[in-house]
Amino acid sequence: MNSKHLNFVLTVCILFLAPFAGKAQKATIEHRVDSVLNLMTLEEKIGQMNQYSGFWEATGPITEEGNKLEQVRTGQLGSMLNINGVDHTRKLQELAMQSRLKIPLLFGQDVVHGYRTMFPIPLGEAASWDLEAIEHSARIAATEASAAGIHWTFAPMVDIGRDPRWGRVMEGAGEDPYLGSLIAAARVKGFQGKGYGNTDAVMACAKHFAAYGAAEAGRDYNSVDMSYRMLNEIYLKPYKAAVEAGVATLMNSFNDINGIPATANSYIQRDLLKGQWKFDGFVVSDWGSIGEMINHGYSKDCYQAAQQAITAGSDMDMESRCYIGNLAQLVKDGKVDIKLIDDAVRRILTKKFEMGLFDDPFKYCNEEREKQQWNNPANLEVERDVAKKSIVLLKNDNQLLPLDTKKKAIAMIGPLAKAVRENIGFWSYAWPDDSIRIVTQWQGIRTRAGKNITMTYAKGCEINDSSKAGFAEAVNIARQADVVILSIGEAANMSGEAKSRSNIHLPGVQEELVKAVCATGKPVIVLINAGRPLVFNWTADHAQAILYTWWLGTEAGNAIADVIFGDYNPSGKLPCTFPRTEGQIPIYYNHFSTGRPPKTDSDVNYVSSYIDLPNSPKFPFGYGLSYTTFKYSEPLLSKTTMNSNDKIEIKVSVTNTGNYDGKETVQLYIRDLVGSVVRPVKQLIGFQQVFLKKGETKELTFTIGIDDLKFYDYNVNLIAEPGDFEVFVGGNSATELKKTFTLL
Ligand code: BGC
Predict the structure, then answer these.
(1) Same domain (yes/no): 342, 441
(2) How far is the CA of 110 from the centre of ligand 1 (A)?
(3) 596 CB neighbour count, 10 Å cutoff
(4) Are residues 685 and 705 in the same domain?
(5) CB–CB of 380/117 below 8 Å?
(6) Do residues 550 and 684 share a domain?
(7) Side-chain-side CA neighbours of residue 599 (13 Å)
């Protein structure tokens, strides 16, 4: 047998035997978990269900809580969060090894969009619609975090956000369940790599289960009241996708759902997640959410809260101390069946075994690896790549961009132009060398502009302040320049947890600064940095070019320079609808028709509209320009009827009709014209990214099958109903390029 044959035989053997090896390993772990469980006292079991935050900041000890250390030593703690760095995790793990059964601790951390290298905020990355790039970013984050002793990230956040007032839209993938599900799976795969248990991977945690993003009025932690049909149709899909992608854990949420706090919601945690979806990982509560059920008015005290939470399937208590304080008594009082405790502990221990921590509790404590990942230039390159792909070109009148390098004088203005930490946004780590590592927008553009271009700078105003004292200087340098780059937006702490805003206009006097600078008559390129869709109508109507840059991460300045000078042709598309004003919120593209849909934006005659505002958004979902232009052919359907076993192919040709090579995200939407429950006016069911050289045409094929046409009916059954469908193709959700077909 030659080596080619041998390889072939080996590959076949591996493929054939792999499932058996996986099963054998599972059986071994089950066996080992049971043997540990048999040795445990009730108190030790409850200890595994208990999680505390650490007592170190990233840079050193802040307080010494002897009690917590003692609890580690006596096996009353299963996991800690906010402990990072090999040195710190090792010290605590050594303490855990002094406990009777030597059960290792799990170290969790919010590695939301990077650890040492900060990546674009998740909403920004979602604008890339580039699943590979998104997975890659999570991969790097996991590599860096695991090298710092972290086992488990509290990410991805997969909550659908239809309300930009909610500050946590920055952490998710936007408003669409289809795109959101694909991104959820990509992030899980990225974090978990070839499988958690490998030293370059972390366990992922899909959060916040469930419907946290639907908080009433966009106010963080607020109530959610919606039909179970809607919950399944829109909000639960990305969690399900995360489970299907093998996510290790889920975190539940602070909100109540239809009157029951998610933490005590058996329908979602036991019936759906652990029942129908067969999720075999564990559920951690959100920070204090078990104890907070007292504030909700759902639990009388911690004793009752612990009972309700464990009954509903919350396995680990983050920081409320209700489990450690009450579960033993609840078992003794006959209020909680020991089987529930055993099930929770079994789930937690299984993950510790799968992580390899029982075999080597110090597996993730490798100083060499930590050092190597601390300054890994390759990670910065990946960051820059994802960052440039996340930028969305909203406007480009007279082809102002890419910037003509014949323009010899640039005035760079605005409170974000030289900002440092604002570039990395909320949920980011403050490292001592941030001021050297983070590439500011000024630095990135200055470096790329080169010696032949002069650059001047004026801040103009603060991010959120009423003073216009800096306007005169800004206007003055604008007058002397050939072109102005104006960097404005939110501060890093204006979107994120507990950062809901009722007013999502540009903060402070920034839009007035835009007006003052535009009044000079100079061409103005505006960079908008934010963690959510903002309202900026004057700027949108008057500035010649606008790039929405979110918060782009460590390499922000370089990525922006890549786009401004045309080294990268922008390809981002909005993952969420941009409203004209707060009064339109919630606003999303996949809404229902109503019985009185307006015919046009100005139709107000007893139709479902505002008398003072069009229904259409400022920028629709899926929107984003390129330096080039794309022309779509009429879509061609392989047939116009299908039955449930059929597939229909849709072919569309896209031509690059402009002057630059570029990438287009071609989107496919359907509308189910008549349903047993009303159906959205459009619904994304596919997209493809295509790179086209100047003048080039490519034909793309999409395939629609029965699963693409399914929805949850009134009784929450997933079905497809015979009838007529419209299928739309285009570069954003406002496309009217459509054909019809019938499901028989
Ligand atoms: C947040 C979670 C986070 C946890 C731990 C909570 O306040 O809602 O998303 O993972 O804190 O930091």
Answers:
(1) no
(2) 7
(3) 11
(4) yes
(5) yes
(6) no
(7) 3
Evaluate whether residue 594 is within a structural domain.
no
Dist. CA 719–CA 467, nearest whole Å: 58
Q: Is residue 553 part of a domain?
A: yes
Which residues surround ligand 1 with Cβ inside 6 Å?
A: 81, 110, 154, 207, 286-287, 497
Whether 122 and 189 map to the same domain: the answer is: yes
Active site residues: 286
Nearest to 112 by CA among 576, 531, 599: 531
Pairing of strands 392-396, 545-548: antiparallel
Residue 137, domain member (yes or no): yes
Q: Could you identify the atom of ligand 1 that is nearest to the CA of residue 207?
A: 9
CA of 364 to the centre of ligand 1 (A): 23
Q: Counting beta carbons within 10 angstroms of the beta carbon of residue 362, is it exposed (0 to 12), middle (13 to 18) or buried (19 or more)?
A: middle
Ordered alpha helix ranges (H), 677-721: none
Domain assignment present for 617 = no
Query: Residue 513's closest CA among 568, 541, 471?
Result: 471
Residue 94 domain boundaries: 42-369
Distance CA 437, CA 614 (A): 45
518: its two tokens = 């535009």
Calculate the alpha carbon distances from 635 to 216, 472, 692 in Å. Answer: 40, 53, 18
Q: What is the mean pLDDT of residues 515-534?
A: 98
Return the residue matching tokens 């930028």.
Answer: 391
b/e code 172-192 from CB counts within 10 Å (16+ = b): bbbbbbbbbbbbbbbbbbbbb
CA 495, CA 490: separation in Å to the nearest integer? 8
Parallel, antiparallel or unpaired: strands 56-57 and 60-61 = antiparallel
Q: Which of 369, 401, 424 is at the close of a domain?
A: 369
Q: Kindly report, residue by residue over 585-623, the tens digit of the pLDDT.
A: 999 999 999 999 999 999 999 999 999 999 999 999 999
Atom of ligand 1 nearest to the CA of 208: 9
User: 211 with 293, same domain?
Assistant: yes
Taking CA atoms only, the protein residue closest to ligand 1 atom 6 is 287
Q: How far apart, in whole angstroms, are the C-alpha atoms of residue 662 and residue 569?
A: 6
Q: What is the pLDDT of residues 75-121, one digit of tens each?
A: 999 999 999 899 999 999 999 999 999 999 999 999 999 999 999 99
Other residues' Cβ atoms within 10 Å of the Cβ of residue 262:
27
Only one residue has tokens 């937690």, namely 348
Instruction: List, in sequence order, every residue forming a beta bridge with 662; answer none if it has no partner.
Output: 692
Distances (CA, A) of 504 to 157, 200, 494: 22, 39, 10
456-466 pLDDT tens trace = 999 999 999 99
Angstrom distances, CA of residue 527 to CA of 193, 393, 435, 490: 34, 10, 21, 11
Whether the pLDDT of residue 574 is over 50: the answer is: yes
CA distance 323 to 290: 9
Q: Are 574 and 714 members of one domain?
A: no
Separation CA 633–CA 653 (nearest Å) = 5
Number of domains in the chain: 4
- For ligand 1, mutation pick of 287, 427, 429 (most atoms within 8 Å of CB): 287
Residue nearest to atom 7 of ligand 1 (CA): 287
Alpha-carbon distance of 136 to 132, in angstroms, equals 6
Same domain, 421 and 443: yes
Q: Using CA atoms, how far apart are residues 667 and 40, in angstroms rounded to an integer?
A: 54
